[in-house]
Amino acid sequence: MTRRSHVFETMGTVVSFAFDDGEAARIDLERLQGTFAHFDDRYSLYKPDSELSRVARHELDLADASDELRAAYAAALDWRAATHGEFSPHRPDGIIDLSGIVKALAIERAGDELLDGGAVNWCLNVGGDVLVSGLDPVGEPWSVGIVDPQDRAALVTPVRIAAPRRACATSGSAERGDHIWTVGGSPSEFLQATVIADDIVTADVLATAIIAGGAPALDRACASWDIDVLTVDRAGGLRATPGFLHP
Predict the structure, then answer these.
(1) Is 215 left (phi over 0), alpha (psi -120 to 50) or beta?
(2) Residues near 75 by beta carbon (within 8 Å), at least 6 away in sequence
(3) Which of 178, 161, 143, 136 is nearest to 227 (CA)?
(4) What is the pLDDT of residues 72-125, one digit of tens each?
(5) What is each CA distance from 33 to 40, 61, 110, 167, 175, in whole angstroms?
(6) Per-residue CA distances from 94 to 25, 55, 97, 185 (Å)
(7) What does the DSSP assignment read for 189-217?
(8) Is the Cβ–Cβ distance between 188 and 178 less than 8 Å?
(9) How crowded is residue 140: how many other Cβ atoms within 10 Å of its Cβ?
(10) Total domain count for the chain?
């Protein structure tokens, strides 16, 4: 089989979608791009006409917002409770910011649409957050490279992703600076956290929570969810769960 790829920009990042020739007839690339555009148009706080921007400016009451936006906010609140506040949909100034969950929700929906369309073997990489289905074109689990936060041209390690662990998400400060709100307001002890899970929302939210909450959040996440984690601290030290090292 021949590997094909489709790359486009959306939601402030780059989407790389890989699949083999045998899947081409079952994949609607225009619909795939449209799914991400929909989430960007609704939730981006960088777009003044987005629905969430209107909520932030108090031009639209949250109670009058769309069912979809309110469902996303409710999911974010559930995650805030589950992570002891280490993940939050609120900025320190109180503005609702769903960027910590919206990308994962968009990936999740895009993945569901691909499966509904009959596509079996594909890899969707959105700014380093990855969801896969099936196997790569040579019949192996999809391989994902975990970038070194101290040298973006190098990898910490490659990791293979396959069902049931179909999702891999990375959060940290190396690429965008210290943009994640941390517990207590100090910079996180971790430069980067990568989480492998069965679903992309769990992987993405917990990666963010671990950055925000540090080692206590890492310990709680590993005790509470069926995940594997790799962290890189500010001195370059690595911590990894056994399943991450020996999948």
Answers:
(1) alpha
(2) 101, 105, 201
(3) 161
(4) 999 999 999 999 999 999 998 999 999 999 999 999 999 999 999 999 999 999
(5) 11, 29, 9, 20, 24
(6) 46, 12, 9, 15
(7) SEEEEEEEESSHHHHHHHHHHHHHHHHHH
(8) yes
(9) 10
(10) 1
As a whole number of angstroms, the distance between CA 170 and CA 204 comes to 7
Share of the chain above pLDDT 70, in %: 93
Alpha carbons 85 and 182: distance in angstroms, whole number? 10
Q: Can you give the CATH number for the domain in which 24 is found?
A: 3.10.520.10
The residue behind tokens 């559930």 is 78
Whole-structure pTM value: 0.94
Query: 230 by DSSP, 3-state: which?
Result: strand
Tokens of 131: 């969801």
With b meaning 16 or more CB within 10 Å and e meaning fewer, what string describes 39-66?
bbebbbbeeeebbbbebbeeebeeeebe
Q: What is the pLDDT of residues 51-67, one digit of tens each?
A: 999 999 999 999 999 99
Are 227 and 195 spatial neighbours (Cβ–Cβ below 8 Å)? Answer: yes
Instruction: Assess whether the previous peptide bond of 149 is cis (omega < 30° from 0).
Output: no
Residue 207 is which amino acid?
A: A
The span from the CA of 37 to the CA of 148, in Å, is: 29
C-alpha 15/C-alpha 126 separation (Å) is: 4
Residue 176, domain extent: 3-245
Whose tokens are 């540090």? That residue is 214
Tokens of 162: 């396959």
